[in-house]
Amino acid sequence: MEAAEIEALFTREDGSFLFARWGRPIAPVVFGVKDETLAVIKGALEAVMILSGHQMMETDPELGSNMMLFFFKDWGELPEVPGLDRLIPDLVPLVDRLEAAEANQYRIFRFDEAGAIKACFVFLRMDRHLSAVPAETLALSQIVQSVVLWSDLAFRQRSPLAVAGERTILRPEISALIRAAYDPILPAMAMDPSHALRLAARMGQMQ
Asked: Is the pLDDT of residue 184 over 90?
């Protein structure tokens, strides 16, 4: 990937550049799925952790679970989840906005003092569109979009995934970019677009 392409993936709709990766091991928990789907999500998470070189753990010492994935049928279910309003400020107004927009997914990140990701909350309203997506594809897509703070525009035109035969895989250039993003020589957070040049250089060295 050229540096300009990488920069675009972290440039938000308002024109600002912001890159961040996780600064602590990921301690995931999933709500609203059956055991077989849970195994698929765990497999996707493990695959992305191996790719990135990042770690998972059973419990985050500060938050307990720092990556929460919620699967549900209606946004109105969220305010009924015990304690969720303490994790998500202004939960009810947020739900109202998502319902009005007929959104089927939403992602919230929290950051530590250094600007690295310390928590991610993923909400998936399983409408007919998401329900039609194979579990493996949906799981991999959500984990990839949660492992790095991508731009809100990053994958509107093109998915991070690709079809290879009968399998859905991560696009090779996105895979290489995630590996570069977690190179310990690079900072966990950057607001200067020149960071795209550093990522491009790391990708080149890894090839």
From this structure: yes
125-145: buried (b, 16+ CB within 10 Å) or exposed (e) per residue?
Answer: bbeeeeeeeebbbbbbbbbbb
Q: For the chain, how far is it from start to end, CA to CA, in angstroms? A: 12
From 17-21, 22-26, 36-40, 197-201, the region with the lowest mean pLDDT: 36-40
Q: Is 164 helix (H, G, I), strand (E, B) or coil?
A: strand
Confidence of residue 164 (pLDDT cuts 50, 70, 90): confident
- Do residues 176 and 206 touch, judged by C-beta distance below 8 A? yes
Give the pair of three-digit tokens for residue 149. Answer: 């703070």
User: What is the Rg, in whole angstroms, of the alpha carbon atoms belonging to the chain?
Assistant: 17
- Is 107 in contact with 114 (CB distance < 8 Å)? no
- What does the pLDDT look like over 40-87, one tens digit per residue? 999 999 999 999 999 999 999 988 999 999 999 999 999 999 889 988
pLDDT at 102: 95
Task: Give all domains of the chain, ordered by start, each with its CATH number.
Answer: 1-19+153-207 (no CATH), 22-147 (3.30.379)
Distances in whole angstroms, Cα of residue 157 to Cα of each of 22, 70, 152, 183: 25, 25, 11, 27
Q: Which of 161, 157, 189, 156 is nearest to 174 (CA)?
A: 161
Instruction: Give me the residues paired with residue 106 across strands.
Output: 123
